[in-house]
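LAB NOTEBOOK - FOLDING QUEUE
OPERATOR: T.R.
BATCH SIZE: 2
PURPOSE: Compare the predicted structure-token outputs for two unrelated chains run back to back under identical settings.
PRIORITY: normal
REVIEWER: second-year student, initials M.K.

ITEM 1
FIELD SEQUENCE / FIELD STRUCTURE:
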Amino acid sequence: MEFFTKIDISKPDFSLDYGTPMAFFGSCFADSISEQFLARKFQVLANPFGTVYNPLSIARQIKALAEGKVFGEEDVFQDSHEAGGETCGLWHCWDAHGSLSGHTREECINKLNAAAAQARDFLTRADTDFVALGTAFVYFLNAGDSANDGRVVANCHRQDSKLFTRRMISVNEAAEALAGIVNDLHSINKKLHIVFTVSPLRHMADGAHQNSLSKATLMLAVEKAPYFPSYEIVMDELRDYRFYDSDMVHLSETAEEYIFERMVDTYCNDTTKANIAKVEKFLKSANHRIVDPASPATAEFKKKLAAQAQELERQIPGLAIH
């Protein structure tokens, strides 16, 4: 008897291995799944501008990379926090996470341009880009000037809510953003395989019904694109609160590992699966707790690990353990 519905996933016309760099853009689900690959020593780029949840913001970030944008003074702003009558907060960018903010304008701009340069270079070499869509709700800036009024905001940086208008975008708006993402990524790398997925993490602040409408909007927008069914796997295969974290919104480690396994089954051949098992076995040994770092046994253990790492790198093209 079958006690759950297993999602059928079509085999793609490409495969992933240790020699195929992969990029991840999008929601925190993109972060968690990319960490699964990174932990097994795949070549990974994850959210160079930080976590971003909606299609319009993802499209804006990727367009900046495709156009070779150089960030400047017009792309950053200072936090509205005041002390002694003067603005004294951090410098931010509406298109980037707070990890790219800076104590000075120059620091923030330098972080943005460094992230962009690294991402561009990686994408020219990448084989696959996974784009994780989190929500169809988007923030727009109420700037009061023609240059910035109505522009898409990826991160509000805890600014006054009066600065923003928030709404759910339409299926057509989302689909246009996804088409732009594909075109811009292919302008960077024509051979790049692009796969979309809808994050199974629920955005419950707006209520269950609005979350469902948001996810449905994303699914309709992505209908004809290459797609990995992360959302469907959680809703139909796992389908139990024990696969969620304590906040009942984010996924548990078990669920994340299960989705990773389904991705490996879908995108990796038997050779790569065997190589992943070898790397996992090595890493388990390498993470063994050392009781006495100064002992001869520890020195011999480290020597043995170094030899094993070197042998694995020889056996598996593209693997870099150190």
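ITEM 2
FIELD SEQUENCE / FIELD STRUCTURE:
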Amino acid sequence: MFPATFPSRDRIDWLPVDKLATVLLDVLDTVSSPSTNPPAPNNGTQVFHIVNPHAASWHADFAPAVAAALGVQTVDFAEWLSALRTSADDAIASGNIDLDGNPAIRLLEFYEDTAVVDSPRILTSLKAEDASPALKTVGPVGEEWLRVWLEQWGLAQAKPKHGYMELL
């Protein structure tokens, strides 16, 4: 099972690391150039929120795609969290804690804390977009990025098919 919702984390504004690297170089180039970078007010510190300006939704985009790729059903976050808690308690009681088989147990406390948070975190990327042409043109999390991440996380295997990598 996979959580269909994720309280306070519905906004998926992730970037692949290769895109992030390009954006960071753009920002560094911008802040290093006096002609494009006016002095910052106060102490000179500047903050750039480097997040994907084209966010996807956990419940509408991410969860259905992950569940389909893994061949599992989506359930409400509370139901998923309860099942995870039961799994962790059973593992502790039996003395057989398989973190490789159920890695979400490692983050159980984080998930429990997340369940009670009401307000989502939203970071504005406008300043970073002004500094990075690459950030302005990056797209939202999509199937291609998701496939790669699932493979990298060890949740799916890829096999070549028609010149593309397709999940098993």
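REVIEWER COMMENT (ITEM 2): Confidence is low (pLDDT under 50) at residues 159-168.
FOLLOW-UP: none requested
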